[in-house]
Design a protein that fits this description.
334 residues; alpha+beta; 60s Ribosomal Protein L30, Chain: A; Phosphoribosyl-aminoimidazole Synthetase, Chain A, domain 2; seven-stranded mixed beta sheet; five-stranded mixed beta sheet; globular
């Protein structure tokens, strides 16, 4: 396609039919000639988060909406709208754009939110297409005013398990690498973990039943997510590897990449929840059909320790590059 913004005809054909669910808070919707959306949030707080999608290609539109909205949810907010920016290389086709936009539309419908604006342009200097999404949501003032600090002994809960997003991306984008080395059934289950990406349901339950802090597990995996929470507390943390669940499809990634550290593999779809001991969160999650795992607690000293399943105890290091990037680099070398 030629460099420049999409034509009005192209926008009407492959973008504007796919704007999710119309929300009553949106007074001015996405449209030709409208530069800004206008929202009426009444007495609610506005929560905003932005994320690029860089490690996935096949389902990047769908994945991007959930990743951006999960941050809003983890802050105690409820997403209502999203802005989508697509900066596309010249080799992009209308079908490529349609695939991305349909993915964002499907995710928005699942969440009950609206695409309230964005920008789509072909750029000659772009080598790989870039998708960036900004999610907006509302948050009740009481959750900000009543926020309680993390204390020694507080429990760390993980929903669903680890490495969800990384598992889905690897099996979806590089399926041929696993054929003959991983059971077909597990490959399909790994690809279907894409449907686990939203943390909306568990986020609402956790906020209503005493969550102090929530954090969406993105790049850096479970260890990275816990480290980031601990870094803001002035406390230490102890995790127990044997309590951290990984789906069999995730563990099967080790058949092909035996050195892969699953605890540091990107995991949107997993929610870390911190709450007082003896809370009701796991019980309520179970009643809603959501698996959760008590994986550790906060300690008085500043040490950050992982108790390995083999009995070894190691320091949890500051998160660096996600394991997904190491895998992608190895695949490029083949």
């Amino acid at each position: 396609m030629k460099p420049g913004k999409l034509t009005i005809e192209q926008l009407k054909k492959i973008v504007f039919p796919y704007t999710g669910i119309r929300r009553p808070e949106v007074l001015v919707h996405a449209a030709i000639g409208e530069d800004c959306a206008v929202l009426d949030l009444k007495d609610q707080l506005c929560v905003i988060s932005t994320d690029p999608i860089t490690g996935a290609s096949k389902d990047n539109g769908y994945l991007g909406v959930h990743v951006a909205c999960n941050d809003v949810i983890a802050s105690g907010g409820k997403p209502l709208g999203i802005l989508v920016t697509l900066l596309l290389k010249e080799e992009t086709t209308e079908e490529d754009i349609r695939r991305i936009i349909e993915g964002t539309n499907n995710a928005c419908k699942e969440l009950g939110i609206e695409i309230i604006g964005g920008h789509t342009e072909i750029i000659s200097s772009v080598k790989e297409s870039i998708l960036s999404l900004t999610a907006l949501g509302t948050k009740d003032r009481k959750y900000l005013e009543n926020q309680v600090a993390i204390e020694e002994g507080d429990e760390i809960i993980l929903t669903k398990g680890g490495a969800i997003e990384g598992t889905s991306i690897l099996y979806s984008d590089f399926e041929e690498i696993f054929e003959g080395k991983v059971e077909d059934k597990l490959i399909k289950e790994g690809q279907n973990m894409l449907s686990w990406l939203s943390v909306l349901k568990e986020g609402v339950i956790a906020m209503e039943h005493g969550a102090k802090v929530m954090h969406d597990v993105t790049e850096g995996g479970v260890l990275g997510g816990v480290y980031e929470i601990a870094d803001n507390t002035g406390l230490g943390v102890e995790l127990h590897e044997e309590n951290i669940y990984f789906h069999p499809a995730t563990r099967a990634l080790l058949n092909v990449f035996p050195d892969l550290e699953l605890l540091r593999l990107i995991s949107s779809g997993s929610l870390l929840i911190v709450a007082k001991k003896n809370n009701e969160i796991r019980k309520k999650l179970k009643e809603a059909g959501i698996e959760s795992f008590s994986i550790g607690s906060f300690t008085k000293d500043m040490s950050r320790l992982l108790h390995r399943a083999n009995g070894e105890v190691i320091d949890i290091a500051e998160p660096k590059s996600d394991e997904l990037w190491s895998i992608i680099d190895k695949l490029k070398e083949r």
